Amino acid sequence: MRIDLLTLFPAMLEGPLASSIPGRIRDQGIADIRVHDLREWGLGRHRSVDDAPYGGGAGMVMRPEPVAAALDALRGPASTVILLDPAGEVFRQARAADLARHDHLVLVCPRYEGVDDRVRDLVDLELSIGDYVLTGGELPALVVVDAVIRLLPGAIDDASTDEESFADGLLEYPQYTRPATFRGRAIPDVLVSGNHEAVRRWRLEASLRRTLERRPDLLTGRPLRPEERRILEAIAAEPGAHAGAGAGPGRGPDPGAKPGPEPPEG
Questions:
Q1: In the chain, domain spans
Q2: Pairing verdict, β 79-90 and 125-128
Q3: CA 257, CA 174: separation in Å to the nearest integer?
């Protein structure tokens, strides 16, 4: 996969993309990631990329010509051009998995008051990472790139991506490591039982319970396997249980909160 990023501040992207797992992915040639200074396509002697908005108002707007010229230079038949924008589709794991199957991504990072609206005619997809305001598109671009490249074959152990949050539409089950007891809180006994099937069932129940308590919206419309349905029905039948309980003290049991009996067979 090749990824090109268009930005006015290349240093904001180069550091994170050269570190940790993204850096290793680049070094191994799993993804070819290139950061471009949009001013390379700027106008005139000063490489201008922005101007005042028509109709007046605060701030500056990124002009369409530099963006169009950059896309003309980078775009190919297999390219997918993405604009990071608050009005875009909210970025989710399913979209990350979809983009990981593409050959070439081009990400446009806006600045100032955003881009001239005619730039939207030049892109294939607009993405937002949430309902809040940032100073530019660089941080959202890093989020998208990180989420996508870690799904590429050879980037990370397949087991890591198969069982993590959102991979199956659920939040991930609680994780534990040594020590077995920390400040009076012990790990669930089932995790050291050596019974792999019991561990699998516990993790599924913990994942469903955590999703129900913290992100019940993820269960809406999600097809349930028979085993998942039985577990959710058992949780709903527990004393004091109520669907959609939020996270927080006293807001419902957490399978990772303290040791408990193994989940029942079936």
A1: 2-159, 165-266
A2: parallel
A3: 9
Which residues, including other chains, have CB under 8 Å from residue 149's CB and lie 6 or more apart?
1, 3, 22, 25, 30, 31, 33, 100, 155
Size of the chain in residues: 266
User: Kind and range of the H or E element at 86?
Assistant: strand 79-90
Per-position b or e across 195-233, b if 16+ CB within 10 A of its CB:
eeebbebbbbbbbbbbbbbbbeebbeeeeeeeebeebbe
Query: What's the CA gap between 197 and 98, in Å, rounded?
Result: 31
The two beta strands, 32-37 and 61-62, are: unpaired
Q: Which two tokens stand for residue 144?
A: 């998208």
* Cis peptide preceding 179, ω within 30 of 0: yes
DSSP designation for 137: S
pTM: 0.83
What does the alpha-carbon distance between residue 88 and residue 186 come to, in Å, rounded to a whole number? 44
**Consecutive 10-residue averages of pLDDT for the chain (266 residues):** 98 97 98 98 97 95 98 98 97 97 98 96 98 96 98 87 77 95 97 97 97 96 96 95 46 44 41
Helix axes 20-27, 138-149, angle to 10 degrees: 60
CA 236 – CA 106 distance, rounded (Å) = 46
Q: Which residue has the tokens 């989020």?
A: 143
What's the CATH class of domain 165-266? Answer: mainly alpha
Residue indicated by tokens 């419309």: 221
CATH class of 2-159: alpha beta
**Cα Dmax for the chain:** 74
Cα of 219 vs its chain's centroid, Å: 18
